């Protein structure tokens, strides 16, 4: 009761409060929108490192150390070279999850 009569007494302050509330809502919606876009984006399209005997030694331990060995098979002229359209292959395990 005292709350609502206070609002009538200061109409301008009340309008200002409503504006801040609206800005907060817009901020939350923008944040949710960005999270939604991130959630939609690439990860699912990048194949994980296969879980087989070739990759078993690299499934655990330091990623940086493991990445030193990828080129032994996936480097140019090796047994399993990367396809031509492959993105710049600097940090393999940033993009390829371990299975
Ligand atoms: C001993 C050789 C060898 C090494 C070392 C190796 N790979 Fe592979 N990799 C293969 C072979 C063979 C295939 C294809 C057959 C298969 O699935 O194992 C392959 C396939 C892949 C694929 C494709 C998966 C798919 O679904 O298309 C990814 C990603 C991959 N390797 C990542 C890596 C990464 C990252 C490293 C370094 C940590 C690595 N490999 C080291 C032999 C190797
Ligand atoms: C910037 C992210 C990124 C990095 C870093 C990266 N890859 Fe990939 N890789 C991809 C994507 C995306 C694909 C799927 C490409 C496609 O299907 O055309 C892929 C595909 C592959 C494949 C499967 C190719 C095939 O014939 O299906 C192999 C093997 C592979 N990457 C190995 C590696 C290795 C080894 C490294 C490190 C030397 C590496 N990648 C670094 C994003 C990355």
Automatic annotation (TrEMBL):
It comes from the Bacteria. InterPro entries: Multihaem_cyt_sf. The chain crosses the membrane at residues 21-41. This is Cytochrome c. Keywords: Membrane, Transmembrane, Transmembrane helix.
């Amino acid at each position: 009761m005292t709350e609502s009569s206070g609002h009538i007494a200061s109409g301008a302050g009340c309008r200002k409060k409503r504006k801040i509330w609206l800005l907060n809502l817009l901020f939350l919606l923008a944040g949710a929108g960005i999270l939604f876009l991130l959630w939609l984006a690439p990860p699912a399209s990048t194949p994980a490192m296969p879980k087989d005997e070739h990759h078993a030694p690299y499934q655990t331990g330091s990623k940086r150390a493991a990445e030193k060995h990828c080129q032994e098979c996936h480097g140019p002229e090796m047994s399993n070279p990367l396809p031509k359209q492959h993105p710049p292959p600097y940090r393999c395990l940033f993009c390829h999850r371990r299975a």
